[in-house]
Design brief:
7-stranded mixed beta sheet; 27% helix; 3-stranded antiparallel beta sheet; 297 residues; alpha/beta; disordered N terminus; Rossmann fold; globular
Length: 297
């Protein structure tokens, strides 16, 4: 896709794997892609080759079997981005240049992750790969020239080594281009928002997923959240995008309003009509409901 050079606002979102863009920032992608004065670029760092596979009929794609999951997820990502409005998209370094590092569970039920003891030679989280990865990301920043960049907090949201690497790369890129990037946001979920969403789905008749344990789903204290985007208008697009990532996400519609989703661990998560962000870098005051509010063109 060719970027509209006349766009006054430019947004760059950097994600570790296919599906992360939809799960954490799908509403923002849909909202700003629909704005003719905003260009949106999504960067995906790996093909998500080490992901687990939910549908039984597709489990031969898994890394311990045919190891074809990454190629399949290229197709899933294309469908998800189309559902979200068709933003500009890049793979960091090109498709499959770096591989999903995988993860091991690190407590807190089946949600929190840590780095495996052994990494694939092309793993995104490989220490020696950082400088090349940063150079590739800076090439994109120099071309797109985004005023606003979005990625993860320092822990990657839930500890996955590729999310942590994406955070470090984005932080370094923003620091290296202070004349380009005006704001850096971390995508988060506030504790109260998560609790309210869970209260709407837990206990619903027919819910096929288990309720999460205390603190099993990642969230941040409400006071840390600086910006909340109302993405209610893009609910249908987000659901379609999640369904496109069928190997990774199960979506359940109650038929009465609330929608739940789960990863392969079958832990219920609510589909929230607000996306929350922390202004991690940039001049204040932090915008309340628009990532670009108050910025000069």
């Amino acid at each position: 896709m060719t970027l509209p050079r006349t766009a006054g606002r430019r947004l760059l979102l950097v994600h570790a794997h296919p599906d992360d863009e939809t799960l954490t920032t799908g509403g923002a992608i849909a909202r700003y892609t629909a704005d003719p004065d905003t260009s949106v670029t999504v960067v995906t760092c790996t093909l998500g080759e080490e992901g687990e596979v939910i549908p039984p009929e597709l489990r031969e794609l898994a890394p311990d079997r045919a190891d074809q999951l990454g190629g399949y997820r290229v197709h899933e990502l294309a469908g998800a981005l189309a559902a979200l409005g068709g933003p500009d998209h890049r793979y960091l370094g090109g498709a499959a240049h770096w591989r999903d590092s995988g993860m091991v569970l690190a407590g807190h039920g089946d949600v929190w992750a840590a780095t495996p003891a052994e990494l694939h030679p092309r793993a995104l989280a490989a220490p020696e790969a950082f400088d090349e990865q940063l150079a590739r990301l800076l090439e994109i920043v120099d071309e797109v020239r985004p005023q606003v960049v979005v990625s993860y907090a320092h822990d990657g949201g839930y500890g996955h080594p590729d999310h942590v690497r994406a955070h470090r790369l984005v932080a370094a890129a923003v620091q290296a281009r202070p004349d380009v990037v005006a704001r850096l946001f971390h995508a988060v979920v506030g504790r109260t928002t998560l609790d309210k969403g869970l209260a709407e789905i837990v206990g619903l008749p027919g819910l096929p997923f288990r309720a999460p344990g205390e603190d099993e789903l990642p969230s941040v204290p409400d006071a840390e959240v600086t910006t909340r985007l109302d993405v209610t208008a893009h609910r249908a697009a987000r659901i379609e995008a999640m369904r496109a990532h069928a190997t990774q996400i199960s979506v359940w519609d109650s038929g009465h309003g609330p929608v739940a989703l789960a990863m392969s661990n079958e832990v219920a998560q609510p589909l929230l009509d607000v996306e929350e962000y922390v202004l991690a870098h940039g001049a204040g005051p932090a915008p309340a409901d628009d990532l670009f509010s108050g910025l000069d063109r």
